[in-house]
Specification:
This protein is α/β, with parallel strands linked by helices and about 525 residues long. About 40% of the residues lie in helices and about 10% in strands. It is elongated, with a radius of gyration of 25 Å.
Length: about 525
C-alpha cells in the first residue's frame, strides 16, 4: 500500500527534518520522494542515504518545469514555458528535455512532474500563467510533447499537469478550491486537448488538478483529484490512459479544506490515483486506506494493479539496479557548457518583435543614445551589452518607485538624445501579469515611449504589455518574456543584427498584439 505514497523531502531544512524523512522511509516503506528546495550536493548525499534504507528502491521526483533550477541552487534554469511558447523550432525544446533528463539522472532522480500542459487562457491566472506554453491549445500540445519526448527518450518519467486543465482559473489551488464552471463540450475541446495529444504521444504520467468541475462531477466541493468519475471514468476509461496517474499535492488547501484528517487520501485512492503525493500524514492515510480495502470499497485486483504499475515504472527507470550516485565533478556536470549554450539558443529563438521595421529597430550606433532600464536598482546586462555597440551612449536607471521629481528630471534629460533604448524589467521570482511599478513609473513609461526613435524591450511576463498604456506607440517593441541574462543578451543580438528575431507571441495580450504576433526576419 505504502508504495503508492510519495512524501516531501528537502535539503535546506536541517538535520532533524532529514532524519524525520528517513524515519518515515524505514517505518512505512513508502514508494517515493518529491524533492523541493536545497542544493545539489546535499541532495545527492541524502538520496544515497535514503535509498540504502529502503527495502524497495525509492522513485525520486521533482517539479522541474524549467529544469532542476526550479528547486535547487547552483544549477541551470531553462526558460519558463511561456518563453518556450514563443519558439518556432520545437526541436530546441526536445533538446531541452534531453538536457533536463541528464540533470535529473545525474542527481539520482527518475521522474519530473512536468511539463505543464495547461492552456493558460486567463491572463490573471495566479498559479499557472508563465508556467504554461500559452493560450493556444495546439501550440501547448506540440511544445509539451517535444519537451516530454526529449525527457522520456533520455530515460526519465514525465508527468503532464494539471488534468483536465488549470489554465482558466482565478484561484490558487494551494490556497482554496478553484471552480471550473465550463461545459463538458468546452472542457473536451479546449482544456483536455493537450492531455489527449500527450496520451497519444505516449506520456508516462499525468497529474490531476484540485478543481471543482460540476460539468464532470457535480458533487459539491469535490476536488477533481478525489472524483472517480474524472480520474477513472474520464482519464483511465474514456481516454484510455494506461500510465501513472499522480495526485497534485494532498497538503494543498483545495483538498484539506473539505476533506481533512486523511479522508482526502482515501478518496484520492478510491478515485483511481496511482501515486498519492505529499500527504500531510501518510501513516494515518495508509491505515485509513487499508480499512477501505478491507471493507471492499475497492477490489483487490484494482489495488494490486496500481502497486504493480508503480513497481513497473521503477523497473523502467532503472531502479532494479540501484547504485550510489557520485558527488565527484557534480557542479561541473550540472553546469556544463552544452546546457548553457542551449539556454542561450532557446533565448535567442524566443525574442519576439511585436512592432517595428529595420529602420525603427536597428538604430544608428553613431547617434547620441540613451539606454534606460526600468524596474531595477543597478545597471543591467541589457544596458552593459548594448553600450558596447553604441559608444555615444549614457545609461539611466529607474527603479520601481523612483520619485516623480526624479522621473521628470530624467524625461527632461532624455530630450537631449537622438534615440532611446528602454528595457522594462521584472525582478520578481514569479513574474505576474501586472508589473509592481508605481503608477508614477508607469506614467513615466507612457511619456517616454513617444520620444522620437524609441525601442522598448519587455523583460517581463508578456501580459504586462496590456497594463502599460501607450506602449504600442514605441517606435519598435520587443517581448523577451523574463529577466534573465541570456534573454537580455538575445535582445541585444537582435538590435545589433547578430541574429534575426523569429519568436511569435504565445498568448493574446490585447487588440494590438493578439496570439501569433511576431515580425520575423528583422
Amino acid at each position: 500500500m505504502a508504495q503508492l505514497f510519495f512524501i516531501r523531502a528537502h535539503t535546506n531544512k536541517g538535520q532533524r527534518y532529514e532524519d524525520s524523512v528517513a524515519d518515515v522511509i524505514k517505518d512505512q516503506q513508502i514508494g517515493g520522494l518529491v524533492f523541493f528546495q536545497g542544493g545539489p550536493g546535499r541532495q545527492v548525499n541524502l538520496i544515497n542515504r535514503y535509498q540504502k534504507i529502503a527495502n524497495v528502491p525509492l522513485l525520486i521526483a521533482m517539479d522541474g518545469e524549467w529544469g532542476v533550477g526550479m528547486r535547487l541552487d547552483s544549477t541551470i534554469s531553462y526558460p519558463y514555458q511561456m518563453t518556450l511558447g514563443a519558439i518556432q523550432d520545437n526541436n530546441l525544446i526536445y533538446k531541452m528535455g534531453q538536457q533536463v533528463a541528464y540533470d535529473f539522472k545525474r542527481l539520482g532522480m527518475q521522474m519530473n512532474f512536468g511539463p505543464d500542459m495547461d492552456v493558460n487562457n486567463n491572463p490573471n491566472n495566479p498559479v499557472i500563467n508563465y508556467r504554461s506554453f500559452g493560450d493556444n491549445k495546439y501550440n501547448v500540445a506540440e511544445k509539451g510533447i517535444a519537451y516530454l519526448k526529449g525527457m522520456q527518450d533520455a530515460g526519465i518519467l514525465t508527468t503532464a499537469k494539471h488534468f483536465p486543465g488549470h489554465g482558466d482559473t482565478n484561484v490558487d489551488s494551494h490556497l482554496d478550491l478553484p471552480l471550473l464552471p465550463f461545459s463538458r463540450q468546452r472542457l473536451d475541446s479546449l482544456e483536455e486537448y493537450p492531455f489527449r495529444q500527450a496520451i497519444k504521444a505516449g506520456i508516462s504520467g499525468i497529474m490531476i488538478a484540485h478543481m471543482d468541475i460540476p460539468a464532470l462531477d457535480n458533487t459539491k466541493n469535490l476536488p477533481s483529484t478525489l472524483s472517480r468519475k474524472i480520474v477513472t471514468g474520464i482519464l483511465k476509461d474514456s481516454l484510455a490512459f494506461k500510465g501513472l496517474v499522480v495526485s497534485d499535492a494532498m497538503e494543498m488547501k483545495a483538498v484539506t479544506k473539505y476533506f481533512p484528517d486523511g479522508d482526502a487520501e482515501v478518496k484520492a485512492f478510491l478515485a483511481g490515483n496511482d501515486i498519492i503525493e505529499l500527504s500531510d500524514n501518510s501513516d494515518r492515510a495508509i491505515l485509513k486506506i487499508r480499512r477501505a480495502i478491507r471493507k471492499g470499497l475497492i477490489s483487490n485486483e484494482e489495488f494490486e494493479a496500481r502497486v504493480k504499475k508503480v513497481l513497473a515504472a521503477k523497473y523502467w527507470a532503472g531502479l532494479s539496479k540501484i547504485k550510489e550516485i557520485s558527488t565527484a565533478h557534480l557542479d561541473q556536470d550540472l553546469n556544463r557548457p552544452a546546457a548553457s549554450e542551449l539556454v542561450q539558443q532557446l533565448s535567442d529563438a524566443a525574442v519576439t518583435v511585436l512592432k517595428g521595421n529595420m529602420a525603427s529597430l536597428h538604430l544608428d550606433p553613431l547617434l547620441r543614445t540613451a539606454i534606460v532600464s526600468v524596474g531595477v536598482d543597478e545597471h543591467t546586462t541589457f544596458q552593459k551589452e548594448l553600450a558596447m555597440w553604441y559608444p555615444n551612449s549614457r545609461l539611466f536607471i529607474v527603479n520601481k518607485n523612483t520619485p516623480i521629481v526624479r522621473l521628470n528630471q530624467i524625461l527632461v534629460a532624455l530630450e537631449q538624445y537622438d534615440q532611446v533604448f528602454i528595457g522594462l524589467h521584472d525582478t520578481r521570482l514569479r513574474p505576474q501579469s501586472k508589473l509592481d511599478y508605481s503608477n508614477e513609473v508607469k506614467m513615466f513609461i507612457t511619456n517616454l515611449v513617444v520620444h522620437k526613435n524609441t525601442v522598448t524591450t519587455v523583460f517581463a511576463n508578456p501580459y504586462t504589455i496590456a497594463t502599460l498604456p501607450g506602449i504600442e506607440k514605441s517606435g519598435a517593441l520587443m517581448a523577451c518574456y523574463q529577466m534573465t541574462d541570456a534573454l537580455q543578451r538575445s535582445a541585444v543580438k537582435v538590435i545589433t543584427r547578430q541574429i534575426k528575431a523569429s519568436g511569435k507571441l504565445p498568448v493574446s495580450v490585447n487588440a494590438f498584439f493578439p496570439n501569433g504576433t511576431g515580425i520575423g526576419g528583422l
